[in-house]
């Protein structure tokens, strides 16, 4: 064999061993795959093309001149994921802990720039201890990476999987992405670790409590999805991509539908409880109307009073925003508003139509909510719906009260079609609150105040708390049989699929952050 060819093959073989078999074994003992194993599972077999395999650190001080760092701790390239183009990077924890040095960061940034030029998604498989201390200021390419994240935001899908540590400044790149997936008991994300926190504040906390998948999926809201292991994580990435277009100029992919588009769902006619105060599971409604009963929920454990996620209707993808009466009665609060607004804007950026299923009694009352900024945060949801140019189909099914009505989108927010169930009530407030204001004096003067309250409550309900009064005023454009919900949604979606709507020219809006 040609000597130069043999040298090249030997170098590649060495690089493919990453940080060596001992470190690879340690990665496996932790229940983690290596950087290259992850990419092998992510991409279709034989399609991955690697970039900059031979890159090494530039730094020569603090022992770096004696350090072997194959590919500088990050594997980058492009390939096909279920037949669709994508770029990806996978940080290699077996090489210098996956820490980011100058060349490591430039390899990552190169993938971002190329994905934007090609107009295809970029996937980040993060497993890094943070910035590389041995390289000092030269290690920080974070600013370039963040800049690229923002440039690509809303242009190509950006998905980050945290499959190990993600510490310090490295956390902010995933935070700018469209979706974050963390692996249970494996992922860790924090700006400052337990040791620094203890030194500065005196607080004692372990890694899992501070920045594990459970914490970020239930408390901070950083993590949109939690995976059981690396295999499940990569599978969830593929599911997410199946709902997304390659870029913002394209429509999302439509799949063949084997579920009858004219399927009636008789159970929906009786799913709303007679008692208006009784909860029920909104997920049951979503799964019944979706193709094959599949609802891919996003952030299921954060702000559980609102549901967001993806379904297909007649093969066409839709983003769903729905109140969850089983949790806080489906009220909107700060976290629910932020969760929904972010999801609405993500769908709008990538031409994914939206379905809002409404059963909202209002905003969650309380001093903490007011002082923590429910007005400011609640406004994000209003802004997101008004800004969205994708088809917006609204289905109020029970309560639709007060300022929460436009927050779930309404005809006044330029919805494309509003179809209500016969059980729906659209008003400023419910009957109990209304009669306490409107008939306060009459009730106080009555011989039997309780009977008087019931009389005026019935009067108010008959006049306003039915969908027909709202339909008369063109607030609802149809009142439908619940069993026909799937049929009506698909008919409307087909009519508006691919619709283009222009907005007035501006540099950008100013969402209330």
Keywords:
alpha/beta, 18% strand, 513 residues, 2-enoyl-CoA Hydratase, Chain A, domain 1, single chain
How is this structure best described in words?
This protein is of the alpha/beta class and 513 residues long. The protein has three domains: 241 residues, 2-enoyl-CoA Hydratase, Chain A, domain 1; 194 residues, 2-enoyl-CoA Hydratase, Chain A, domain 1; 34 residues, no CATH class. It contains 20 helices and 16 strands. Strands 1, 2, 3, 4, 5, 6, 7 and 8 form an eight-stranded mixed β-sheet that branches. The longest helix has 17 residues. The protein starts with a helix and ends in a 17-residue tail after the last helix. The mean pLDDT is 93.
Summarize the structure.
With 513 residues, this protein is of the alpha/beta class. The protein contains 20 helices and 16 strands. It folds into three domains: 3-243, Alpha-Beta Complex (2-enoyl-CoA Hydratase, Chain A, domain 1), CATH 3.90.226.10; 266-428 and 466-496, Alpha-Beta Complex (2-enoyl-CoA Hydratase, Chain A, domain 1), CATH 3.90.226.10; 431-464, no CATH class.
